[in-house]
Every structure is written in C-alpha cells, then in structure tokens.
Amino acid sequence: MTTREKTKPKHLESEELLQARTFAGDAWRQFRKHRLALIAIAVLAVIILGVLIGPFFWTIEPEYIDIVAAYQVSSPEHPWGTDSLGRDTLARALQGGRVSLMIGISAMLVSISIGTVIGLASGYFRRLDNPLMRMTDIFIALPQLPLLLVLMMLFREPLKASFGVEGGVFILMVSVIGGLQWMPTARLVRGEVLTVKSREFITAANAVGSRDGRILRAHILPNVMSPVIVAATFSVAAAIITESALSFLGLGFPPDFPTWGRLLFDGKDYLTITWTLVFWPGMLISMTVLCVNFIGDGLRDALDPRLRK
Q1: Which of 118, 109, 105, 116 is nearest to 222 (CA)?
Q2: How far apart are CA 283 and CA 276, in angstroms?
Q3: pLDDT at site 32
Q4: Contact by Cβ (8 Å): 228, 213
Q5: Using CA atoms, how far apart are residues 288 and 291, in angstroms rounded to an integer?
Q6: Helical packing angle, 165-179 and 89-124, nearest 10°
Q7: Is 127 helix (H, G, I), strand (E, B) or coil?
Q8: Beta-carbon contacts of residue 18 (< 8 Å; ≥ 6 apart)
C-alpha cells in the first residue's frame, strides 16, 4: 500500500461507503432496529414450521375419536386437551393452521393484485381516476360483515357442488375475503402513482415515446412496491381474522375439516367444561395476527426513505 493510499481523505472514504450501500442493505439495517419485528419473525417462523412439519412428529390423527379421553384439559397423551369426542386438540390445531394460513396468504394475493391494478389505472390515467375512485368509495361504504355473510350463503352450495366441500369453501372464502379488502391498497397505490408520475424520469420516458404499459411496468410499479409490500402484511392479518370470524359464525369449513376459527366455533359450547378448546386456537390466531402486524410495522419503518440515513 502506498503512502497516498494510506492518507486517503476521510470524505473520499465516506463517498466510497455511500456508493457501496444498497437499498436492500439500508432497509435491513433499519429493520433490525425494530426489535419487536425481529421477535415477531422468530415467533411466526415457529408457528409456520409447527403447522407445516408438526404433523410429522405429532402423529395422532386429527379426526381419531376416543370417547374415553373426552373433555381432557391436559395429559401426557394430549397436552392441549381433547374435545367432546376425544379428538386431540393439538393435532387439530396443527391441521387447521395450514388452512388458516393458506387462506390468509391467498386472500392477500387476491386483494393486493386487485388493489394494485386499480390504483395504477386510477393514478396514471386521468379519465379513469374518477370512476375507479367512486367505485372504491362505494365498496368502502358497504357493510363488510353482512355482505360477507350474504355472499357466503349465496355461493356456498353451488361451489360445493362444483369443486367439492373443502375446495368450494376454500375458493369462496379466498374470493370473498380478497374481493372485499382491496380498497385501502387501491387508495395507497393511487397516491403513490400520482407522486411518481410527476417526476422527471417519467417525463423523460414520455418524451422518448415509451408506451403507457411499459412506463407502468418498468418505472411506476417498481417505485410503488414498498408501500404495497407493507400493505400485504396487514392484509394477511385481516384475512386471517375475517376467516376466523366466518368460521366462528358457522359459515366456514365443515367440522371434520378444522381451521382455527372452526375450532373456536366448536369449542365455545364446552367452554365451561374445558377451556383449552377455545384457548389454544384463540392464542394461535392472536399470536399470528400480532406477529404479522409487528412485521408490517418494521417493514414500514425500513422502507420509509425519510428514515434512511
């Protein structure tokens, strides 16, 4: 190393460090400062791994009936207790977690896709802005829970006949929940598009004759993905809660196909006999939603350019 290299000015070193920084690296450094988000990732990973690989280790069949072991609170054979038919609550919770998480993720994908497309079209095309936003206002004004109940009652039996009991209910829940939760994403994306559309690189793209579709895909969409990712995390939590509410009202999956919400519905009648039937599914729902919300808070802080130094 030469003497000149050893005595490199500090401002040049800082410039080299700034050039070496990336958006992903800055976001991760900011995300690590949110301790609750890091704890939430660890807890959520345990829950996901539990419902995915747990049945390979806890081999009791979820629908195995043992009347002699009914209404147990906790025992070495059934640590989470049993229901009125002697079915193991832990095995049923592990099986139901797969369905609840799959519904949450699938409904999130539906709502985020619809909201992003409508938000992009509304923010970029001026002639579509007013009709799409008025449609969004109408959907926001609709009472969500009564509309969910009506749609579930109307399409439940036709979809069961076409795709089977489990497949029909799954498709219906994902479509209904995702189709009624896209409005906040659409408003968020529209606002971001209006901001990005006024920047110089969009004006330059229009000046060189780029098509609208290419501008949306290559320039605008990548710049609005950060808030969309944050909205997606909160959408997962909202979808899990909505599925649990519908299942608790008896409009979800049948009793032999448990979800966390269905376990709550089945256990509420035996709450005075064994509290574990309600406690464990409720705790899993609460912990999952809480972790997803904390991760969303961490992502919001990490992806906010105003907090990046």
Answers
A1: 116
A2: 10
A3: 81
A4: no
A5: 5
A6: 40
A7: helix
A8: none
The Cα 126–Cα 132 span in angstroms is 10
User: SS3 of 309, please?
Assistant: coil
Residue 100 identity (one-letter amino acid):
S
In angstroms, rounded to a whole number, what is the distance separating the alpha carbons of residues 102 and 236?
10
Residues in contact with 171: Cβ distance below 8 Å, sequence separation at least 6, in sequence order:
159, 163
Token pair, residue 10, equals: 């500090």
Asked which of 94-108, 163-177, 247-261, 282-296 is least confident by mean pLDDT, the reply is: 247-261
Secondary element (H or E) of residue 56: helix 35-57
pTM metric for this prediction: 0.82
**pLDDT at position 305 over 80:** no
- Kindly report the length of the chain: 309
The beta strands (E) that lie in 167-215 are given as: none
Tokens 């059934």 sit at which residue?
78
CB neighbour class for 291 (10 Å; exposed up to 12, middle 13-18, buried from 19): buried
Span 30-49, pLDDT tens digits: 778 878 889 999 999 999 99
Cβ neighbours of residue 308 under 8 Å, at least 6 residues apart?
A: 26, 27, 30
pLDDT of the residue at 20: 52
DSSP 8-state class, residue 218: I
